[in-house]
């Protein structure tokens, strides 16, 4: 069984935790670097302003992927927690 961890920036289900310089294939955030002096809210806003494009050139974008639904689900889950 593969454990997934949600990226706190974009809500993508990552295979590795968002720490230790792991990079989210969806938004491209490198955890421990990009988030060292920038909040996840600021990183999310910048990614969305940039068009919320799939970042990875090696991991394919999932079929039917919608970045806005993904972020909406993330924010909804944070509000209900």
Describe the 3D structure.
This protein is mainly alpha-helical. The chain has two helices and two strands. A two-stranded antiparallel sheet has the order 1-2. The longest helix is centred in the last third of the chain and has 14 residues, at 67-80. It starts with a strand and ends with a helix.
The description of the largest β-sheet is:
2 strands, antiparallel
Task: Give start-end ranges of low-pLDDT stretches.
Answer: none
Task: Supply Rg.
Answer: 12 Å
Distance between the termini: 25 Å
Order of helices and strands, N to C? Answer: EEHH
Task: Summarize this structure briefly.
The chain is mostly helical and about 80 residues long.
Task: Describe the secondary structure blueprint for this structure.
Layout: E1 5-6, E2 13-14, H1 40-49, H2 67-80
Antiparallel strand pairs: 1-2
